[in-house]
Structure formats: structure tokens, C-alpha cells
Amino acid sequence: MKIVKAEIFMVDLKPKVKRVDAIQSFVSQETPIIRLTTSSGEIGEGYTYTIGTGGSSVVALLRDHLLPKLIGQDATMIEGIWESLLFSTHATSVGAITSLALAAIDTALWDLKCKRMNLPLYKVAGGAKSRMKLYTTEGGWLHLSTQELVDDALAVKAQGFCGSKIKIGSESPVRDIERLTAVREAVGDEYVIMTDCNQAFKFSEAKQRAALLEHINLSWIEEPFLAHDVDSHEKLCESTTIPVAVGESIYSIQHFKEYLQNNAADIIQVDVARIGGITPWLKVAHMAECFNKIVCPHFLMELHISLCCAITNSRWLEYIPQLDSVTLNKVDIREGYAFPPEEPGLGIQWDWQKIQTDTVVYHVIE
What we know:
By secondary structure, the protein is of the alpha/beta class. It is 38% helix and 20% strand.
């Protein structure tokens, strides 16, 4: 099981719908994909992503520093490889580029492991459940009108989805309240509504909006502050009954530990790419369980469906399709539930003909 070859492909995936939040508009998803080949001819495929910028930097770190260290390594030593690669980048860790690059490698190694065991990822990683409730973010972007928010929520509710996430951060707090109130009145009290601030607020702003939102019965308020500001998240948790969700912009296990120890988050949104792969994702999820916290990961539903079904403390899966244009399969969704792939490996069937056609960067290391 020695690794003898590593290939890097990067495709730039354009979102199918306009995506605008309080701080940015999404115009591309640069997606580095790697393929590892072992001495016995087995192939493991992994990936990572960036939103808008940084993809070429992730590729450079993989090409110049990380993947050359993999050649000749035993692919079954996943934990050891992850730790050694992290240490080799100690001058740039903890950081987004390093974590995103490590995730591409780690997911490929887990793909190899699952294929070797002839089992799907969700069973190899834990096997806790066989389906997940879905909520959608695709119809809740900040640029959409109130009526568009209502129409989308009613449509997905009819499909069986459990809830919708709606972006907030309008210049006027009143507009945010009006939009959310309209959706709540349309869908009723049982439907789940989340809000996402995308790190846009100062403490006084978030405290005010949380107070105004209390009556709407929200399932969480997400990323009110910059991710490094543990203190403000802790104070907001103490001042509102609305659960506070954090995690998509956190890149280390230790940072999650700080949030959990300080009771600064109620919902843990660990992202498998941004935390550095499946290996650290599972550690964060199990650490959250020790603190009796819910895990609801950010984005990457094609991979997170398997990870959510591997653990006991997952609650909802975020519906935002990412990989449809470069895969031959889609997430199995029925009556508002997502079901994990049953085939061995990650369960993502890459369309290699399309990837090779659309690749903007390619490198091979042997």
C-alpha cells in the first residue's frame, strides 16, 4: 500500500444560483481534486475547496510541499501521515490554506481505506444512522426579496425538508425582522428556521438583533462575529435564548476546544475541508459530543452526509449542491431526507472526462 503517484486537478465550479450574504457574493468554487495511486494499483480520490480565491495557493502547497512527502508512504497510516504533514507545515499552521490542502490528502486516504475494506465511509467512520434531515440554504440568500424567501420555504417544506436558513445582515435590522417574520408566518411554528450573519456584526449589533429575533423561534443564529472572537460568542450565548452556531471558519481542533470549554457555541458547524479532513473532523465531532453539543456541518453535503451518519450527535444536513457538474451521481434525497452512499469509499463518483475537460490546473508527482 505504498503511495507511488499523486495527481492534482483543479476545476472552478460556478454556482448555479446567485449567492449573496452580508459580506460577499459567491462567483466561483475553486475545487482542487487529488488522486493517489498505490503500488498495488488502488486509487483514492479526495478533494477540498475555496470560495472565490485561494485555490491556486492550495494547489501550490500540495504540489511543492505536501504531496512529494507522500511518495513511498504507507497509505494505511492515515493518522500518522496527517500528523507528520501538519508538523511539516508548522510555519504556516494553523491556517486556511494548510488545512484545506491537508483535507484533500486526508479524504483521499480515507477513500482508499474504505475501498480496501469494501465498506462505505459512514460505516467505516462510525455507522450511527442511515439518513439525515435536510435544511436548505439555497433559497435564503440576502439579495432575495421577502416573497422569494417565502416561496422557496413553502416549496422545500412541501418536499419534506425540515427547514430553511436565511441570511441576515441588512443595513436595517427592521428589514431582517420583516423578512424572517414573513417566512415564519408562512411556514408555521414547526418548520425550522436558521439565520446566518456571516461574521458581519459587532457585539452591540448582534445583541440587538438577537433580542429582536427572540419571538420568531429560531433554531440558531450563525457566525455573528469573526471566528477568532471567542469572547463575544460566549457573551452572546449568555445573553440570548437563541442557540449560537459556529464552526465553518475554524481551522483547528484546538480552536473548537476553546469554544467548547468556554460554552461559546451551541451548534458546532465543523467543515471537513476547513478543519483539514475526515481525521480531525471526527475528533471535533466526538469532542462536541462530550460537551453535549449538536453537530451540523457547513456546506459539502456530498461528503458530510456520510460523516453525519457516522456520529450520534448530528442533527441536520445543509443542502447546497456543490459537485453536480463534475460527478456522475448526486446525493440520494427522498422526502426531505438525505441518505449516505452505500458503495465503498467516499461514495462520490467523479466524472473524470468532465474534470479533465474543465481542469484549469494539473500536476503529477511520482
